[in-house]
Amino acid sequence: MIMLLAITSSCGETEQPEFTGAPGEVELITLAPGHFHAYLVQKDMYEQVDPVVHVYAPEGPEVIQHLEMIENYNTREENPTSWEQVVYTGDDYLERMLSERKGNVVMLAGNNRQKTNYIIRSVDAGLNVLSDKPMAINAENFDLLVEAFDVAERNNILLYDIMTERYEITSILQKELMQLPGIFGKLETGSPEDPAVIKESVHYFFKYVSGQVLRRPPWFFDVTQQGDGIVDVTTHLVDLIQWSCFPEQIIDYKSDVQMISARRWPTPLTAGQFERITGVPGFPEYLNEFLENDTLLHVYANGEMDYTLNGVHARVIVKWGYRAPEGAGDTHYSLTRGSNSSLIIEQGEEQDYKPVLYIKPSRHITMDEFEPVLRDEFLVIQERYPGVELERLDDSWKVVVPDVYDVGHEAHFASVTRKYLEFLVEGMPDWEVPNMIAKYYITTRALEIAMEQD
Predict the structure, then answer these.
(1) Assigned architecture for domain 2-161
(2) Contact at 8 Å (CB) between 320 and 229?
(3) What pLDDT sits at residue 253?
(4) Using one digit for the tens of pLDDT, what is the confidence trace for 4-48?
(5) Which sequence spans correspond to the domains of the chain?
(6) Quick one: fold of 165-453?
(7) Which of 70, 170, 214, 230 is the most exposed, having the fewest neighbouring CB atoms within 10 Å of its CB?
């Protein structure tokens, strides 16, 4: 249901609620939705969240698409949602949202140039924030984000970003196996030439979401608004490295991180490809600086960074193409080297473009020597995740995961949202905020280094 917001006056500041987990106590405000992650948060209902959601946005196709997608969720045949959207559109949408305070949690997923400002304005007004990544796309944004976390702490506000990849089953199992000393051993330190941890993500501009062709806004291809690839998707990869290699440990970006190198390069798009993705004929004027011969758009969506985290050498790579090969989609590669084995996630043609985890013994250990220890310690995994099995290959073991654990990327947004709702009641672990700050330091500093190489 969509309702137009009536003109109301501000009632002034209100005291922060103490969340108890009661039904409907969380009142969502969606601010300037411009990315499909905004509506994926509402693909499911949550008992703790009031079904009435207030939407504040500038007029335009982005908010229309957002409202239409949620209406599709409301009217689908299987497990329909029951959101009621109360909408205000106008140039003063931000000030209107802050003055009216129609909720207590602000959901952010849209134009990243304004996002960090939205964050600090929201937490300063006493509003909790659940934000899509990235929360900062350059060094200036990073400094503002650090300030926002300080304000949030003073105001007893929960500021958190959406890290869906923590809920992908192969990433979970990779992390769990790293805690088993017989199987993994100790995390290697590696070197700049041979990092101990490598994570690579490949994405495509043309894709389907919730069964429909994703219509991306034209500004998505302006790195001053969306951000370079090296500060966008990389947030997931940097987060996974911190989360899996140093679980529940506080990371101080000033002492625990050393940046080594970074580079970036563009993905070219023709005017026809741009129109198929955005629905807009011709390139907007603000993209002129990225055009070659007025016909080819260069999108700096690709990047690579090398750094150390607590002395461990890590490499993060992100790549974007126009459209995936038939039957393929976004892919993820992950290598983590231990003294006893390497844990590798691959998602290529051989894996039918679905992530598969492999356990490969180190060169000094034979398959036959490794197998008894592997089988014994793997029982811990099987107790936690019934149905997960091992399949012996020529030089490694494949971790066979039942389909029940493969819920799909879109379902991970509900998992993150439920975790956030849990944090509202129980509080957030002490390592989350410093590690978010470290993550955005790494990505924004990598951009600075890469741009120095241009």
Answers:
(1) 3-Layer(aba) Sandwich (3.40)
(2) yes
(3) 98
(4) 443 333 333 445 568 999 999 999 999 999 988 999 999 999 999
(5) 2-161, 165-453
(6) Dihydrodipicolinate Reductase; domain 2 (3.30.360)
(7) 214
